[in-house]
C-alpha cells in the first residue's frame, strides 16, 4: 500500500472519481496546468482535459453558481475554493441555493456536488487564508459538512462525498496537507459520512474534535497519560453533518467528562453545539462541566500572532485538567 | 465636460426590434414559424396569463394568497421567451415575476398558485418540464442557466437555458459573472432581461447610466439585442434567433425586453408612490395583448365573439385551478423534514418526531 500525504490522497480520490464517473467535473481557480495552489488537482488536466478540469475566471460566485446549474443538469461538479476566506463571495449561492434546491423543489431537482475548501490556519498565510468556516455554515440546513484529519479518511470521505446525492462542504485541514504520510489503499473505497472514529480509547474523559485538532488532542492525551495517568478518549468526528451522536454520547456517558476542541471563534460555534448536545443527551452522566478549547472572538491574526490564537496541546491539557479536577 | 463614448450612442447601436406596431399592423413580413395557428395559441396564452395574474392580485387582497408578484403588462415577454423552448431538453431559471414563462414551459397553474399560497410543492415542476423553482435572490439564477447550458454542451447536447432577470438584476455581480462565464465558455445560455423601468421604486436611471442594457453584451463579446417587450411577435423573433445561435454553438445572447409592469412590484408596495399615472397609461396604450388581438382581427381570423369566448374560458379555467389549489391540504410535517436530503439525517428525524409529539399533544396530531 502506498504511503501518501493528505494532499496526495485528495488528488488520488479525485482521479479515482473522475475515472469511475464521466459526469464528475472539477471547477476552480488555477486547478488546471497549475494543479491548484496546493496541487490537489496536480496533473489531472493531463488525463481528463480542460473540459473536466476547468480553470475558471476569478469569480467564486460565478463558478459556484455555474456548478449549481451543472449539478442540476446532471453533472457532479467538485468545486475547489482556493482558500476558506474566499468562500465569502460565493456565500449567496451556497446559502440561498446550493443548500436548498432539493428541499425547495420537493425533490424534483437536486444538487449533488462537493465544495472543497482548504480550511483553518497554521500555515502562516496572509489574511483571509486561515478561516474556520464551519461556523458560517452550521446554521444553514441542507449542507453536509466533512472534515478529514488524515490521508486515509481524506480519500475515503472525499469519494463518499462525491457519490453523495446531496451537496457536501468538504473542509480540508491545509496545515496537514504535507504534514505526514499514511497508508492509503489504491483504487476505490469510501469512508461513510456520519461516522465518527474513536482514534484513542480511554475512560477518564472524552475529547471531541475534528480536522487538524485531532492531532492536537492526541498530543495532549499522551501528555495527560504521561503526566497524570489519565486516559483520554479522543473522537475524530470526521463528519459534522450528519453527526455521529451515538458515538459522542456513548463515550461521554462512559467517561463522564468531556472537552471539545476547535479552532473557530468561541461564540456560537460548532463546539457550543456539541456542548448543547451533551447537555441534551448526557447531562446526568457528567462529573464536571464540559470544557471547550477554541479560538478567540477576534479575527484570525496575521502570521506573527497565529500561535496565540490556534489551540495547542497545552491549552487542551489545561481543559483536561479542569474537567478531571473539578 | 461630458465624456462621449461609443456606448453613449447605445440606443443607435441597439435599436428596439419591433415586428408588430401598436395599431396591429406589421412592420415586416412574419417568418414561417409564426403561423396563424401559432399566433392564436400565443394570444390564448397571453390572455390566460393576464386573467390568472389579475385573479392572484385579488386572491392576495382577500387574504387567500401570500405576497404575489404580478407581471401584467409583460405577457409578451413571458410567453415569447418560453414559447419556443423544448420543455424536456431546454431549461428556464425564472425570477418571482416569471411564473408566466414557467406556465408556458409546462408548469400547471395550480403549482403557481400553491407556490404563492406558501407551499413548496408548487415549486415541483412536473417530470419532463425543466422549469427551475422561482429564484428570489436577484440575478443569482443567471449563473444556474450558464451551468445548465454548460452541462449540456459538455455532453454534446444542444441545450438552451434561459436565465431571467429584471433591470435591477443587471446591478449585482452575478449578472456580470454570468455573462462573462457564458462568454468565456461559449455556452448556450440566453439572458432574458425584462427592463420594466423600476426595481420596486428605483428607476433605471439609478441602476445604470448606460442608455441600454443590451449594449453590455459588447463588453462581454456576446450577442445583444433590444426588443419591444410589448410586441410578442418581436420577442418570439429575437428568441428564435437566440435559440438558433445557442443550439448551433454560437454562444450566449443578452436580450433586453423593453417593457412595463402595470401593477406593483409585489402586493406589498403601491406604485403610485413612485410612478406617474400618465406613465402607466402611456404603456397601457401599447398593451401586448390588445396589439396582437388587433392584428388577428385585421387578418379576419378573430372575431369579437371569439375573443369574448376566450376570455370567458380563461376565467373559468383559472377559477377551476383556484378551487383545486384551495382544496389542497397544508403541507405535512413529514414534508417539512423529508426533502432536505435524499435520506433524512438522524438529527432531522429526531426533530421531526419532536414536532409530531408536540402537535399530538396540542391538537391531536391533526397535521401528522
The rounded distance between the terminal residues' Cα atoms of chain B is 70 Å
**What name goes with the CATH superfamily of the largest domain in chain B?**
Thiamin diphosphate (ThDP)-binding fold, Pyr/PP domains
| CATH architecture descriptor text of the largest domain in chain B | 3-Layer(aba) Sandwich
Identify the overall geometry of chain A. globular
The most extensive interface between chains reads: A-B, 46 and 44 residues
The main sheet of chain B orders its strands as 1-7-8-4-3-2
Write the layout of secondary structure elements.
The complex is a heterodimer of chains A (326) and B (368).
Chain A: E1 2-5, H1 6-20, E2 24-28, H2 44-48, E3 53-55, H3 60-72, E4 76-80, H4 91-98, H5 101-104, E5 114-119, H6 134-137, E6 144-146, H7 151-163, E7 168-173, E8 181-184, E9 197-200, E10 205-209, H8 213-228, E11 232-236, E12 239-241, H9 245-255, E13 258-261, H10 270-282, E14 291-293, H11 306-309, H12 313-324
Parallel strand pairs in A: 2-3, 2-4, 4-5, 5-7, 6-7, 10-11, 10-13, 13-14
Antiparallel strand pairs in A: 1-8, 6-12, 9-11
Helix pairs in contact in A: 1-7, 3-4, 8-12, 9-10
Chain B: H1 10-13, E1 16-17, H2 36-61, H3 75-82, E2 91-93, H4 99-105, H5 109-117, H6 140-154, E3 161-166, H7 173-184, E4 189-195, E5 198-199, E6 202-203, H8 216-220, E7 223-228, H9 232-247, E8 253-258, H10 277-284, H11 288-298, H12 304-327, H13 333-338, H14 346-363
Parallel strand pairs in B: 1-7, 2-3, 3-4, 4-8, 7-8
Antiparallel strand pairs in B: 5-6
Amino acid at each position: 500500500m502506498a504511503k501518501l500525504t493528505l494532499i496526495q490522497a485528495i488528488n488520488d480520490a479525485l482521479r479515482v472519481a473522475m475515472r469511475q464517473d464521466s459526469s464528475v467535473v472539477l471547477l476552480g481557480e488555477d486547478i488546471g496546468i497549475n494543479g491548484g495552489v496546493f496541487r490537489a488537482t496536480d496533473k489531472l488536466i493531463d488525463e481528463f482535459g480542460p473540459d473536466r478540469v476547468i480553470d475558471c475566471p476569478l469569480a467564486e460566485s460565478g463558478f459556484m453558481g455555474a456548478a449549481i446549474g451543472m449539478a442540476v443538469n446532471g453533472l457532479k461538479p467538485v468545486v475547489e475554493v482556493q482558500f476558506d476566506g474566499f468562500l465569502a463571495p460565493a456565500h449567496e449561492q451556497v446559502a440561498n441555493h446550493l443548500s436548498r434546491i432539493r428541499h425547495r423543489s420537493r425533490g424534483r431537482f437536486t444538487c449533488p456536488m462537493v465544495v472543497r475548501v482548504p480550511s483553518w490556519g497554521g500555515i502562516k498565510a496572509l489574511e483571509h487564508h486561515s478561516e474556520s468556516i464551519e461556523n458560517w455554515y452550521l446554521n444553514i440546513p441542507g449542507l453536509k459538512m466533512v472534515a478529514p484529519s488524515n490521508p486515509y479518511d481524506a480519500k475515503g470521505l472525499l469519494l463518499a462525498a462525491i457519490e453523495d446525492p446531496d451537496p457536501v462542504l468538504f473542509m480540508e485541514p491545509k496545515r496537514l496537507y504535507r504534514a505526514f504520510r499514511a497508508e492509503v489503499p489504491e483504487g476505490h473505497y469510501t469512508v461513510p459520512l456520519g461516522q465518527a472514529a474513536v482514534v484513542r480509547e480511554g475512560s477518564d474523559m472524552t475529547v471531541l474534535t475534528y480536522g487538524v485538532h485531532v492531532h492536537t488532542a492526541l498530543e495532549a492525551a499522551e501528555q495527560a497519560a504521561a503526566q497524570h495517568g489519565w486516559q483520554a478518549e479522543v473522537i475524530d468526528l470526521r463528519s459534522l453533518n450528519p453527526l455521529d451522536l451515538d458515538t459522542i454520547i456513548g463515550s461521554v456517558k462512559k467517561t463522564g467528562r468531556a472537552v471539545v476542541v476547535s479552532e473557530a471563534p468561541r461564540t456560537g460555534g460548532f463546539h457550543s453545539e456539541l456542548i448543547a448536545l451533551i447537555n441534551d443527551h448526557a447531562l446526568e452522566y457528567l462529573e464536571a462541566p464540559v470544557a471547550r478549547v477554541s479560538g478567540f472572538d477576534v479575527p484570525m491574526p496575521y502570521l506573527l500572532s497565529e500561535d496565540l490564537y490556534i489551540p495547542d496541546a497545552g491549552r487542551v491539557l489545561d481543559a483536561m485538567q479542569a474537567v478531571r479536577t473539578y | 465636460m461630458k465624456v462621449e463614448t461609443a456606448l453613449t450612442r447605445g440606443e443607435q447601436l441597439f435599436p428596439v426590434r419591433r415586428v408588430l406596431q401598436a395599431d396591429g399592423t406589421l412592420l415586416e413580413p412574419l417568418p414561417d414559424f409564426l403561423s396563424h395557428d401559432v399566433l392564436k395559441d400565443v394570444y390564448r396564452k397571453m390572455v390566460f396569463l393576464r386573467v390568472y395574474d389579475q385573479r392572484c392580485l385579488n386572491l392576495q387582497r382577500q387574504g387567500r394568497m401570500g405576497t404575489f408578484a404580478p407581471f401584467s403588462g409583460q405577457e409578451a415577454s413571458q410567453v415569447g421567451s418560453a414559447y419556443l423552448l423544448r420543455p424536456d431538453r431546454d431549461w428556464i431559471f425564472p425570477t418571482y415575476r416569471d411564473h408566466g414563462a414557467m406556465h408556458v414551459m409546462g408548469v400547471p397553474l395550480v403549482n403557481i398558485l400553491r407556490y404563492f399560497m406558501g407551499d413548496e410543492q408548487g415549486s415541483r415542476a412536473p417530470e419532463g418540464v425543466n422549469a427551475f423553482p422561482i429564484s428570489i435572490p436577484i440575478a443569482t439564477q443567471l449563473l444556474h442557466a450558464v451551468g445548465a447550458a454548460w452541462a449540456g454542451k459538455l455532453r454534446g447536447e444542444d441545450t438552451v437555458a434561459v436565465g431571467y432577470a429584471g433591470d435591477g438584476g443587471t446591478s449585482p455581480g452575478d449578472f456580470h459573472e454570468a455573462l462573462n462565464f457564458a462568454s468565456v465558455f461559449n455556452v448556450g445560455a440566453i439572458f432574458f432581461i425584462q427592463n420594466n423601468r423600476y426595481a420596486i421604486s428605483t428607476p433605471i436611471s439609478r441602476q445604470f447610466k448606460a442608455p441600454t442594457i443590451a449594449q453590455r453584451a459588447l463588453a462581454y463579446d456576446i450577442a445583444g439585442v433590444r426588443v419591444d417587450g410589448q410586441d410578442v411577435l418581436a420577442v418570439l423573433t429575437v428568441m428564435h434567433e437566440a435559440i438558433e445561435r445557442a443550439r448551433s454553438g454560437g454562444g450566449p445572447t443578452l436580450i433586453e425586453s423593453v417593457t412595463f409592469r402595470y401593477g406593483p412590484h409585489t402586493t406589498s408596495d403601491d406604485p403610485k408612490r413612485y410612478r406617474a399615472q400618465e406613465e402607466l397609461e402611456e404603456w397601457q396604450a401599447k398593451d401586448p395583448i390588445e396589439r396582437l388581438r388587433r392584428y388577428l382581427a385585421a387578418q379576419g381570423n378573430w372575431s369579437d365573439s371569439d375573443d369574448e369566448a376566450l376570455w370567458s374560458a380563461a376565467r373559468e379555467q383559472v377559477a377551476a385551478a383556484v378551487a383545486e389549489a384551495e382544496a389542497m391540504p397544508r403541507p405535512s410535517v413529514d414534508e417539512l423534514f423529508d426533502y432536505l436530503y435524499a435520506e433524512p439525517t438522524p438529527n432531522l428525524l429526531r426533530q421531526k418526531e419532536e414536532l409530531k409529539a408536540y402537535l399530538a399533544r396540542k391538537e391531536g396530531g391533526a397535521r401528522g
